[in-house]
Amino acid sequence: MNKLEGKIALITGGNSGIGLATAKLFVNEGAYVFIMGRRDPELARAVTEIGSNVTGVQGDVSSLVDLDRLFAQIKWEKGKLDIVFANAGAALPLARLGTITEEHYDSIFTAM
Question: pTM of the predicted model, to two decimals?
């Protein structure tokens, strides 16, 4: 039995790592998956790797314009959204405790 049969899922950061693995699992469980990623080449490779029941949408989750475009596409293509797997992040160099500046903090949270 497919646990996610007929469900529509969105996975941010779905073009690699945990997001890609989750997208594959969701498709195997019967869901149709939208994956969002910032870089077109990686996004295209992920869509090919997943194979079916997937749409790749290029965009940045920190951009309201990109999010509006993403949700408009989901609504237009499928008419609903059942699952959101928010899996986007950034890996930036860390600073030692006591040396963290406001600029360093802002650079980390602005990158996400």
Answer: 0.80
